[in-house]
Amino acid sequence: MKLYHHPLSSNARKPLMVASALGVELELHNVALEKGEQKRAEFLALNPSGAVPVLVDGDLVLPESNAIMVYLCEIAGEKGEVLYPRGAKAHAPILRWLFWASNHMGPAIAGLNFENNLKKLFGQGEADAGQVARHERFFTQFASVLDGVLAGSKYLVADAPTLADYGVSAPFMYEKAAKLPMDGYEHLRAWLGRMHETDAWKKTDPFKG
Ligand SMILES: N[C@@H](CCC(=O)N[C@@H](CS)C(=O)NCC(=O)O)C(=O)O
What we know:
Helix content: 40-55%
Strand content: 5-15%
Structural class: alpha+beta
Order of helices and strands: EHEHEEHHHHHHH
Bound molecules: glutathione
Number of domains: 2
Largest sheet: 4 strands, mixed
Number of strands: 4
Distance between the termini: 28 Å
CATH architecture of the largest domain: Up-down Bundle
CATH topology of the largest domain: Glutathione S-transferase Yfyf (Class Pi), Chain A, domain 2
Radius of gyration: 17 Å
């Protein structure tokens, strides 16, 4: 199986962490986002949205990080069931968090990462204070949700990491660079610490020395 990715993409890191947790080998293809390769016809034929990750497994071409994570678990048999247990009642809370991350926390972190980190890297000027304040408002709203849930449990859905934890934690790889306002969220911080200790996080960390 091939995964089209970029080492600094938090969305691509989600299936990378899951493949690592499952012990599944992926053939990695780096898409040079900094050179605009994701907008070339060759790549758009795989994902018309022009974004990584994309998984190719035989005749299946699958963009979208959450769909790829679910697919990897479903073809991995028993190992996959640890991260994505069978049945509608087991899937529901995990899917809830994956959709939540994509719609709420992910965009809030992406907004702060753009303003506080990427703009400088791409020579696009200084952070816009209004945009920073707006994304910080969203971030603190959603961080409170996570902190509240994690006050009562070690992981989001079960007593060990599931796809929910991998999906929600991935964009926090930019915690420092994006200047995420993390003060006061002790349960969220402790959970992130546990995620950082997983082999899957360590083996896919592009910032490790
Ligand atoms: N909903 C998509 C989002 C993918 C996405 O936004 N990928 C970013 C990297 S994290 C990308 O490839 N951006 C390139 C661009 O927008 O030009 C997913 O979950 O896979």
